[in-house]
Amino acid sequence: MAQETKPRTILIADDEPDILEIVSFNLQSEGYVVITARNGNEAIELAKIHNPDLIILDVMMPGKTGFEVCKILRTLPAFEHTIIMFLTALNDDSTEIKGLETGGDDYITKPISPKVLVSRVNALFRRIIKESGSVLQIGDLKIDREKYIVTFNNEEIILARKEFELLALLASKPSKVFLRNEILHKVWGSDVIVGDRTIDVHIRKIRQKLGNDCITTVKGVGYKFQM
Questions:
Q1: Tens digits of per-residue pLDDT, 202-211?
Q2: DSSP labels, 112-151
Q3: What does the record give as the DNA-binding region (predicted)?
Q4: At 214, is the pLDDT very low, low, confident or very high (cuts 50, 70, 90)?
Q5: Separation CA 10–CA 25 (nearest Å)
Q6: What structural domains and CATH numbers belong to the chain?
């Protein structure tokens, strides 16, 4: 008898009842277990109780904003790697950057079709990494961080050291938008001064070598990995 897979749990926090109802219905129809909160304080308490696989936060909520909720949860070990997505009507670049800097993995603006949102959630879960020791596997891409070997479609791809480190960083959290400054700090370090186009050049080379546009440019913000 096949072993049953435990359904994934999603916590949605939004002070608009209509949003909660519509999004919850569509996610539940896909088989997800959905928990709802109507303010930031309730979101934190329910997150601690249920430890969801994904948390969807509105930004402007009573009690605590979505940014405050995200920041608090990221300080707790249980939520260090939990996927956190912002779903908000605020669509300016500075607010999106703030959400990502606070610890968000994705930032989606309203209005959005419930079916499109569900599709984004499904894709997000499909891209969760299989990790074994030093090896990351995302679909047909394997990254051995100890041996500095990249294999794509069973073919070894030769990357320069910084290209490898950049790919490994982005692939470590699929769909998370990494800010340019964050990438420069983690890949090149704070002691090395590089030009503004350095990341762009390395990403272009990675795309060419893989023959795949798995790295997406988020204009004015940064980059994210998507297979």
A1: 999 999 999 8
A2: --HHHHHHHHHHHHHTPPEEETTEEEETTEEEETTTTEEE
A3: 133-227
A4: confident
A5: 12
A6: 9-131 (3.40.50.2300), 161-225 (1.10.10.10)
